TrEMBL record:
Gene Ontology CC terms: cytoplasm
Keyword Cell cycle: no
Family: Belongs to the acetyltransferase family. RimI subfamily.
Protein name (database record): [Ribosomal protein bS18]-alanine N-acetyltransferase
Annotated source species: Pseudobutyrivibrio xylanivorans
Catalyzed reaction equations: N-terminal L-alanyl-[ribosomal protein bS18] + acetyl-CoA = N-terminal N(alpha)-acetyl-L-alanyl-[ribosomal protein bS18] + CoA + H(+)
Lineage of origin: Bacteria, Bacillati, Bacillota, Clostridia, Lachnospirales
Domain N-acetyltransferase: 3-147
Location within or outside the cell: Cytoplasm
Amino acid sequence: MAFDFRYATESDIEQIVAIEEEAMSNPWNAVAYQEAISSDHAFIIVAEDSGTIAGFAVFYLTAPESELPDIVVSEEYRGHGIGKKLLAHSIEELKSKGIDIIFLEVRVSNTPARHLYTSLGFEEIGRRKYFYSNPVEDAICMRLDIEKDR
Ligand SMILES: CC(C)(COP(=O)(O)OP(=O)(O)OC[C@H]1O[C@@H](n2cnc3c(N)ncnc32)[C@H](O)[C@@H]1OP(=O)(O)O)[C@@H](O)C(=O)NCCC(=O)NCCS
C-alpha cells in the first residue's frame, strides 16, 4: 500500500463522514468537516490509498497551540502503522505553521488511540471526569511539545 498524505478537499467529505460514522458513537457531520476545510484556523490531513481515503486527522490551530479533536483510520486499514504515519506527517505540517504544542483528549478505554499517542511522545497532563457520553466515560488529556520531542 502506497499512501499519499495531503490536505483534505470538499470532494473527500463523503468518504471522511463514512469512516467517522463507522468508528464513532457521536460522529461529526459533513458540515463540521466542511467548516474545518474552509477555515483559516483548522485543517484536515488525509491518508489516501489510490483514491480511497484510509484515514484522516482534524486540527484546530490557535498558534502556537493546536488541538487534535478527531482522528480515525478506516477499520480495514488499522494496525498497519497508518495512524502513526498520518499523525507524524501532521506534526511536521503543524511545525511548519509555527505550532509547537498539540492538545487532545482520549477515552480512558481507548487502548489503540492511547498507544498511538504515547508512541509519538504525547504525555498525560490530566483527566476529565465524565467527559464523554454514549457511553459516559472519563477523558485523559494529553499534550505533545513538538519542539522538545522532535
Ligand atoms: C486510534 C487509531 C487511529 C489508530 O490507527 P492505526 O492505523 O490502527 O494505528 P497504527 O497501526 O499506526 O498504530 C500506532 C501505535 O498504536 C499501537 N496500536 C494500534 N492498535 C492497537 C491496539 N488495538 N492495541 C494496542 N496497541 C495498538 C501500535 O502498535 C502502534 O504502536 P508502536 O508504534 O509502538 O508499535 C485507530 O485505531 C482508529 O481509527 N480508532 C477508532 C477511532 C478513534 O478511536 N480515534 C481516536 C479518538 S481519540
